[in-house]
Amino acid sequence: MTATHPLWRPFALIGPEEIVAARVGNPANRLITVVAPDPGWPAAYEQVRSRLLEVLGDRVLTITHVGSTSVPGLEAKPTIDIDLTVADSSREVDYVPDLEAAGFTLRAREPGWEQHRLVTWPFPDANVHVWSPGAIEPRRHLAFASWLATHPDDHAAYGGAKLDLAAQGFADGMSYNNAKAALVYDLYERIFAADESHPHVPHPRPLA
After folding, report:
1. Closest by Cα among 8, 139, 121 to 62
2. Which end of the chain has a smaller Cβ tally under 10 Å, C or N?
3. Percentages helix, strand, coil for the chain, rounded to the nearest 5?
4. Helix axes 152-166, 137-150, angle to 10 degrees
5. pLDDT in tens, the chain (208 residues)
6. CB atoms < 10 A from the CB of 55, how many?
7. What are the angstrom distances between the C-alpha of 172 and each of 27, 55, 94?
8. What is the pLDDT of residue 30?
């Protein structure tokens, strides 16, 4: 039996039908921009974190700054990504109405992806990814950020790739994510291969 890291996911791109099915409301597309690292990003995260705790109180089980803005010195979209864990992310009635009343907006609903929900906050610009306990994706996010923070060559390659992609003028986040999916997958493969606590036989992605 092939040893596979417990955080591994097969390589896959997001199809247009998945994008339409996940979308809540009709948000306007925004041109993707990637900017130089901003020392104010941790403080921006703390602003949104405080607001979430104020609104949800003890319904917040965990809350974590993730994504490129959480990695020191890394180029990023100027949007704070946050992983929020609640008791059951599929039970929107337990948290979405209060968040919306406070100014957050539900933007995506993905039952097939660990019951992921996405809510946004306007200023500072933030994406709040809502999960249930035991979800794999938040653990992947932490592993990815930790790797980039401690591996300068991959840090530089990832930041440079994002700058190059942003220069191509992507008008929506899903297409941009698809464009960098191969590099992200390859970085995860290196992360899993280097993890001495879990054996992992490489799973090369399709080249075509």
Report:
1. 139
2. C
3. 40, 15, 40
4. 110
5. 568 999 999 999 989 888 889 989 887 778 999 999 999 999 999 999 999 999 999 999 999 999 999 999 999 999 999 999 999 999 999 999 999 999 999 999 999 999 999 999 999 999 999 999 999 999 999 999 999 999 999 999 999 999 999 999 998 888 899 999 999 999 999 999 999 999 999 999 988 6
6. 17
7. 10, 29, 30
8. 82
Please report where in the chains the tokens 């097939």 appear, as a residue: 112
Laid out side by side, the sheet with 105-110 consists of 62-66, 80-85, 126-131, 116-121, 105-110
CA distances from 65 to 68, 69, 98, 129, 171 (A): 9, 8, 21, 10, 25
Residue 171 neighbours by CB distance under 10 Å? 11
Q: Compute the distance between CA of residue 151 and CA of residue 18 in angstroms, rounded to an integer.
A: 33
> For residue 172, with 0-12 CB atoms within 10 Å meaning exposed, 13-18 middle and 19 or more buried, which class applies?
middle
Q: What six digits make up the tokens of 184?
A: 């992200």
Residue of 15, 11, 14 lying closest to 206 (CA atoms): 11
Burial class for 84, CB neighbours closer than 10 Å (0-12, 13-18, 19+): buried
CA distance 103 to 74: 29
pTM of the model as a whole: 0.95
